[in-house]
Amino acid sequence: MAVPDLEQAVDFFVDALGFDVVITAGPYDDFGYIWPGETSPELGTLRQANLVLGDSFNLELLEYTNRTAELPSEAPRPADPGGWHLCLHVDDIATAGAELVARDDTESISKIIREEDDMDGLQWAYFRTDWGLVLELIQWHPGMPYERKTPHRMALPRWA
Fold it and tell me: What DSSP string describes the chain?
């Protein structure tokens, strides 16, 4: 995940979401990949931090600075081509959401939605940090109605 400020992003993931820092690396003098149509990696400064949540989720944060390519004016929205968001399962969406919006750096951008029909019992909500991360919290438990129609199941966290 590309972030505008590595320390700010690391602080958020550690303090707000409970990640642990495994390693930090850099600075490096180029970005390490050659974009289609170019002949060499873009020059600039790259720093990274690798984090872990429990023993099941790794996250790599990358800070690219001193760019030579033109930057877009804003990050894509989750529904835009190339857009995305980070979704995390929580046990209690109301409590987890309240903890996020109590922070100075995070705002709610949706209400908590409770699904019906095949997804009855699933709840979700979106949040946005002041540095641009769109985060979705989702809560569900085994036994949703869709399970009567297919042998496939959404993967729950190991503790569920």
Answer: -B-S-HHHHHHHHHHHH--EEEEEEEEEEE-S---TT-SSPPEEEEEEEEEEETTTEEEEEEEEES-SSPPPSSPPPTTSTT---EEEE-S-HHHHHHHHHTSTTEEE-SPPEE--GGGTT-EEEEEEETTS-EEEEEE--S--GGGGT-S--PPPPTT-
Q: What is the pLDDT of residues 65-79, one digit of tens each?
A: 998 888 787 778 888
Give the tens place of pLDDT for each residue, 7-51: 999 999 999 999 999 999 999 998 888 888 889 988 999 999 999
For residue 73, the model assigns a pLDDT of 79
Residue 130, CA distances (Å) to 38, 67, 109, 122, 147 in order? 33, 22, 12, 27, 38
CA angle 106, 110, 115 (to 5 degrees): 135
